[in-house]
Amino acid sequence: xxxxxxxxxxxxxxxxxxxxxxxxxxxxxxxxxxxxxxxxxxxxxxxxxxxxxxxxxxxxxxxxxxxxxxxxxxxxxxxxxxxxxxxxxxxxxxxxxxxxxxxxxxxxxxxxxxxxxxxxxxxxxxxxxxxxxxxxxxxxxxxxxxxxxxxxxxxxxxxxxxxxxxxxxxxxxxxxxxxxxxxxxxxxxxxxxxxxxx
Length: 198
Description:
The structure is a single chain. It is built from nine helices and no strands. It is mainly α. Helix 1 crosses helix 4, helix 4 packs across helix 5 (about 85-100) and helix 5 (about 85-100) packs parallel to helix 8 (about 150-170).
């Protein structure tokens, strides 16, 4: 009996993630409502909170899938990238841009999910982010062999933040001097200039 309950719970969890993933992709995170999810899943509203602590936990589960897809796209781009580590950074950054543009709402949800100020993300969530950072850190270790692990970690996050900011402003059409059709060129120029500092 307990096994069947666990199976039903796991099935509901998977169904809710699938529904939430599709709704976020179509309408954005701000339009996600627990009542709408329950209706589409054919379950009571309270059943959602029996499976997930709150709606944020559900969004984190969706975001883990998005991180995984993003990582797969970056890995695929790197498979055909030149051996030069600087160009690898350029290739993966442009892959990041392509993914963001093609999956705008899901990509935005990675960074728009709200948590309490003192609440850390779950370990599995941090691991997904860590895998993405490894793609950046590996070529940086070749470019800057003199850097300590701590310095390289800071540079990894700094480069990610720079690329992310360019992509975000460009895709938002913000008045920040980032024309959407020049995002890739801007990213490549900045990365090549930064890595000249070695």
